[in-house]
Amino acid sequence: MRDHIPVVVQGSGRRVRRAGAAGILWAAAELTVTVGVVVLLLVVHQVWWTNRQAAAAAHEQVRALERAWEDGPAGPGAGAASTPVPGPTSGPTSGPTSGPVSGSGSDSVSGPAAGPAASPSGGPAGTAPRRDGAYAVLRIPRLGLVVPVAQGIDKRAVLDKGYAGHYPGTAGPGERGNFALAGHRNTHGEPFRRIDRLRAGDELIVDVRGRRHTYVVGKVLPETTERDTGVIAPVPRSVVKPGYGYDEPGAYITLTTCTPEYSSKYRLVVWGTLRS
Fold it and tell me: Please, which residues have CB within 8 angstroms of residue 265's CB and are 6 or more apart in sequence?
């Protein structure tokens, strides 16, 4: 009768350990790839899809405003330095109500109110635009930009829709004072992405029911802080960089957005004056 001699296989435990380590590495690699794909999809959604969605909705809002102006009742125009909008649009317009300037928009400046707003004609104030509602259209021929203007600078309710937001407490279109606007530079329609390309003499056209207000770019502040509320004051002048801005009362327009691109660290500011 033969004795059964056990066979000892050396190194099997080592191979098992190696196989286990390889499995862990493989699972970690799969998890890394999955996370990377998810992050990529989120970036595509944020940078590409939100742009398309907001831009399309903003263009439709412009068309809706223009249709409403065509169908609206006739009324007196506003602003002595304004000209009628081409076409049958007509009717009264009104400026914003006064109130605190909120920093809720990432492309805006934040701080106390810029001052009370008058009516567009300089007389008694009429009915103010509905909060967060679009009531005007900004056109920048140099950039091929046509974007609705809404009352307020709330990020979700205004700026993320691809609109330009009208700072509460600043002047209305065509008024003496400072008609100040904020807009996204990146994502959500990014209407102000290319305003760094604006140069002195470029036109900034604002249409409000029945009236056209044409401003001319005068000065650009390439970078300032988000707390530089002087840029949206009735006579705009930076309190951070006092060499930038104006000294005399007048009718101004201000565009603010973030800089550098894909960052909200600083603000880029473009100023213009109403063409007389």
Answer: 258, 259
